[in-house]
Amino acid sequence: MCLAYDDAAEFRTHAADFLTAGVAAGEHVWFVGPAGPAPIDAPGRIIDTAQAYGADLLDPAAQVAAYAAATDAALAAGYTGLRVAADVSTLLPTPAHRDAFARYEFAIGRYMLTAPFRAVCGYDRATLGDAVIAELACLHPRATAGSAPFHLYPASPRPGHVHLTGELDVTTEQLLTTALRRTEPGRPLVLHGEQLDFIDHRSLLVLDRHAEQHRTTLVLRTRSSAVRRLAELIEPAHIRVEVVA
């Protein structure tokens, strides 16, 4: 879950609800953020953001491994899993930091499909701005309403299967290009677009360019025969549209 907030108290309120639900479910809970009081009065850990994620450029694979190890430790201690509420606004000062963190967000999303690990990430609008938040929100299955026009996130524990939902048009061309680059370049990609509300020809061409750049094939699955007809008109060389029931 991606939570875009306007003040720290708002995030702490949402974090408290999220972590309280974790305690009720028997999970170990962590609050990750700047120094301050715990959002709930319950056993758990309060961890500084830099301690949890490091002070340097984030290594996406290493961060996923760290949370996997913490989840295993929670299970070994008798908990049902690990639940984390993290304010990560200070981790994104440069484009390189944002790129690394976005890749991590996508990777941890795949881990969460099968592991007893749950997380909500907080992003401060005043610090980051709407454009940066959209880059991260679009890689989550759920986000604050209006924070991203579409969502691109893992559909399966197997690499190469990705959900694509929402609306794609001329205004989302650059955001889609950036999001695709942060997923799994070089792999054959199956986009599960059954829940897409709209996709235009420019977005199909973005998908085609992505597949061409990575010398792979992209399959877009949709419930709309109109999307297949659109693809037949523009004849993209590197994507195939499949209409599914």
UniProtKB/TrEMBL annotation:
Coiled coil: none annotated. It holds the Pfam family MEDS. It comes from the Bacteria. Residues 2-141 form the MEDS domain. InterPro entries: MEDS_domain, STAS_dom_sf. This is DcmR-like sensory protein. It comes from Actinoplanes teichomyceticus. The lineage of its organism: Bacteria, Bacillati, Actinomycetota, Actinomycetes, Micromonosporales.
